[in-house]
Amino acid sequence: MKIFRHLTIAALAVTALAAPAAAHRQWLLPSATVLSGNSDWVTVDAAVSNDLFYFEHQPLRLDNLVVIGPDGQPVEPTNKSTGRYRSTFDVQLTQPGTYRIASVNAGLFASWKEGGQPKRWRGTPEKFAAEVPADAEGLTVSQMAGRVETFVTTKAPSSGALKATGKGLEMVPVTHPNDIVAGEAATFQLLIDGAPAKDIEVEVVPGGIRYRDKLNDMKMKTGADGRFSVTWPTPGMYWIEASTQDAKTSVPQAKQRRLTYVATLEVMSQ
Amino acid sequence: MRVAATFLLTGLAAAPAAAADLTVSVEIPRLAVAEYHKPYVAMWIEKPDQSVAANLAVWYDFDMKDNEGTKWLRDLRTWWRKAGRELSFPVDGLTGATRAPGSHKQSFGAARLRPLTPGKYNLVVEAAREVGGREIVRVPFDWPARARTTAGARGTSELGAIALDIKP
């Protein structure tokens, strides 16, 4: 897995670590979520932006894409490309059912000073001791686990791709994410490391921000069972975000683990 | 939507008639557009809670290479969600070719109507046209009919007159 490879800290990492007030929105935007063909393709845009769903800030890096097919097995995305404002890639839907398309980021971030110069490091808990000096001056370490995802279905919706990984903050369906329509309530459950994530604030923002003056976002909190419900006012693409932090870090130098979750869901007309 | 219906009161204990026959007439309007494609059309019978009681027909490009015509079935959005996505295409007795503008009749016999228990239903006709719009028309009816019953409704964009003729 290349997930933990050493990277220059990219825009995404900075965004993921930034204080909530400064956060841009990360998202995946599929060309369709409800399909009926035998081997249809979807093309997916991936970006970090202020307004939804417009490319105006940074591309989402495609280093950590994880696409799971209806049989629960990984599917290789193709035609990956990263431009100035957005990345894009394709997924061919060769099996009927539901695909989970995600960018999954996890790791440790360290910064310190060496001879007066700032140093930055990103990597895995396993490499931390070897690569970050134990006596580093002014060392600050943080841990993050982030998932940005969307779902697409060809033919009938299925659940094989939707099983929880048990890592970080994630969403599992009560209502299938490709079976949602305007005017009907949909319910989902948030999990942290596989256990219900209670009392987490969830923000739901409809796309198309550029053509209206109000954000029209909805905010709700998960119950004790980690569940939350949304009744969609109109058809369209919606951005769902939740974040929290805890102290379940992998190394003692990191005091806090920041967990973020984003999903893009398409709400159809009845 | 205006519904012209002539119903006879049916007894509460009415049994489904063995030889009943239901004929649907669908008018596809002639449209003055630069790029015209014959619409995909689906028709089914729904219960008052909008769940599906019986699938009747879907007219689409079923004879394309590699079954490519199924790609656009999802544009019949309501039908696809409620009655289409679980099926394997083409479906015997359900699949038909797209129709040109004009009025088209299709009859459904006792075998197709067997799932209908006595009660209230809607005939639902949905049309979706490539580079065009989508429209749904519903025609309420009671089942079974004690005497010959006709009912109808009219679409305003992608569908014209929809008529239902039930012979007990």
Describe this structure in words.
- The complex is a heterodimer of chains A (270) and B (168).
- Chain A is mostly beta strands and 270 residues long.
- Chain A has a domain at 11-163 and 235-267.
- Chain A is built from two helices and 18 strands.
- In chain A, strands 2, 5, 8, 9, 10, 14, 15, 17 and 18 form a nine-stranded mixed β-sheet that branches.
- In chain A, strand 6 (78-82) and strand 7 form a beta hairpin.
- Mean pLDDT of chain A is 91; it is low at 1-22.
- Chain B is mainly β and 168 residues long.
- Chain B has one domain (4-167).
- Helices cover 7% and strands 40% of the residues of chain B.
- Chain B has helices spanning 77-84, 110-113; strands at residues 4-5, 21-28, 40-46, 52-59, 95-96, 102-108, 119-128, 134-143, 149-154, 161-167.
- In chain B, the strands form two sheets. A five-stranded antiparallel β-sheet of chain B has the order 1-9-10-2-6. In chain B, strands 5-4-3-7-8 form a five-stranded mixed β-sheet, with helices on one face.
- The two termini of chain B are 26 Å apart.
- Residues 1-17 of chain B have low confidence and may be disordered.
- The A-B interface holds A 32, 34-38, 40, 155-157, 179, 181, 268-270 and B 66-68, 70-74, 77-78, 80-81, 84-86.
